[in-house]
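hey so u asked for the seq, here:
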Amino acid sequence: MIKKITVFILVSMFLTMYANAQSKKDARDSTTTVIIFKTNSKKNNKKRSTENNIIKIAPLGFISGRLPISYEKRISDFFSVQLTVGPTFRNYSRNFFQKSWSEGDLYENNNKTSQTNILPSNVKDVTDPLYNFDSRKASLGYMFSLQPRLYFDNDGMEGSFVAISADFYNYSFNIPGLVNNGAGLKHIGSSKKESENIFDIMALFGWQTLYDNLSLEYTAGVGLRNITTTKYAAGEDSNGIFHEGFNKFNKNTVSVGLGFKVGYHF
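ran it, structure tokens below
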């Protein structure tokens, strides 16, 4: 219920700001302005775009295990929509922060997390933690994002803007199953597929600068995040009987993000 209310508030704020901006545009359009240019003025090396499209990449996306490609389409002087798609791979930032937490399995000590445990109550999961890559390998996943934007000035897709961003990230993994080879349980069995899905709803503030055909974009935002994880789990009970399966975890938290993109507008 809290998530629905938050999304409703963000959408309402966005629509209100859009209406105010459109009113300012209408008022500006009703005024006639005469401008006299000097013929000997110096040429500005910055070019205000009259184009309607920008294709962008995020050079630092690999830190979070992403290779996003974004396409921004101008809808009006104040409004645009950006769509982002791309593959995902090993998430180095989550790898770093996960290892800095306790050695417990994922979020089991966090009372804001729900867990579905496939193992009997007397069996402890002794598999590698999710972001331990001693035996585990990251495989190819995917991501997509939809972001409506409202620019403060009628400069096309240039200047400061606010946006609501809905982002989905799928990270996939493969880990060998546990097998008792006489020296204890080891990850030497058949491959098991794991995944982590992250869904963000964020409010963003950003700035975009356009040059000849180059664009530079900076964003900062905060929002809500839901993480759903499917992880291989296995262990032996007190009688030495082996059990294995997949545990599921679900966590809601706050998401904070910074972004930088380089683009080509046409």
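The CA atoms of residues 62 and 225 lie 20 Å apart. The chain has a mean pLDDT of 82.
lmk if thats what u needed
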